[in-house]
Amino acid sequence: MKIGRLNHVGIATPDIEATKAMYATLYGADRATETKDFPHLGVRVCFVSLENSELELLEPLGEASPVHKFLERNPKGGQHHVCFEVDDIITARDTMRARGATVLGTGEPYIGAHGVPVIFVHPKNSDGVLVELMQKPDHD
Ligand SMILES: CC[C@@H](C(=O)O)C(=O)SCCNC(=O)CCNC(=O)[C@H](O)C(C)(C)COP(=O)(O)OP(=O)(O)OC[C@H]1O[C@@H](n2cnc3c(N)ncnc32)[C@H](O)[C@@H]1OP(=O)(O)O
Ligand SMILES: [Co+2]
Fold first, then answer.
1. Is residue 140 part of a domain?
2. What is the ipTM of this complex?
């Protein structure tokens, strides 16, 4: 198993609209989706389009959100995770485990914001970086 493209960089923020506006005015990154709630994932999400990838802006939905605790430690927000594409999510999950990594939660892939299955690998396995693996969407 080998990771493919960088799909997105997840960025936690206490105010998604302010962060969206900042990327537009400061960096000229003015192509962004409408903000959408994903209650079952505990996040509000907006994607800022780049030439070769996306920024995934994340605001917590409630105190049980995985992003809530992150913002308690980093109140102004910051880089939260990176997401790489893989060919097959089950093969990726089993390979990560066989290589000694901790797949978060039950390890059962779930449908993320792009409508394809994802898993997360604990940051302790990747020098402090939380890694999301996403089954490759049909964009090629
Ligand atoms: C929009 C949907 C989807 C998509 O389609 O793209 C998403 O991206 S959703 C994004 C939000 N979802 C997730 O993050 C799910 C996976 N995350 C988790 O399971 C947890 O957040 C966590 C990573 C296991 C952290 O658990 P938590 O209880 O919040 O924190 P702890 O205090 O126990 O932290 C343990 C340890 O990990 C460090 N940590 C926590 N978060 C991060 C992070 N984002 N990046 C790097 N390191 C992180 C934390 O500092 C602790 O370190 P130590 O103190 O050294 O133990
Ligand atoms: Co993500």
1. no
2. 0.97
